[in-house]
Specification:
Length: 257
Amino acid sequence: MAGFFARLEKRLERLVRSSPALERLARGLHLRSLLHAACSHRQELVLGRRLGPDAATTATAVPTGFSILGRGEVEDVRGFFLAVNPGQVDSLAGLYDYGCRVLFMFVAGQPAGYIWYVDAQQERPLPELAQFRIALTGRDVYLFNFYVSPAARGSQQATKLLRLALGRLGAQRYEQAYGCVERGNVPARWLYSSTGWTSLREVSVWTFLSCLRFAGGRWFVNPKVLRPWRPSVPMFDYIPLAGAQAFRMEAPRLPAR
């Protein structure tokens, strides 16, 4: 399926380039932008990293002023998300209620960022695992949605926070971590490479009209398409087309703890 769309995209490009008139017409109509909106493609790298005793040791070597708290250890969860990423509070509330685990990051006592994760005991499905063909077993953990607030960036603070998070997970006896990063996201790839991650494989992700997605051999749908008449802020951009009813559509109110 992915190969078919890739060949189709290349053929359209060759057709446009074969004629100066078609090329001028394509530029005038912003054809490339229209095609990208109708059908976009990206490559995702599935990453892996061992979480042995070295990661647990890192947890004891905490940089001065840095700290991490887990779920249930922060009194004002909504206030934390408002301070770090106010535009995503409702989606983050949905992840929290859905049962995903989160590490809250602080620098000099101030909210600085967060990273979400699930393990093999996660009761409710995470769509990303299906998209990237990741099956968690035993002491595996999948990390996603790592975010550092603009105020806390610089001086390699993102690297320090990620290392600190890996150290905490290692101390919790997780053995293998997985994650994903877009191939074209050079800063993120450097961040993960500098903290010991390695690339395991690539996954092609095709998106059509911002409604349907094909990845990992499966079709996914944008939740907003299923209920366009009901305003909602889903915590997942795309969910499996088969079994979509298993996913809650609206982000609930965030609990205090």
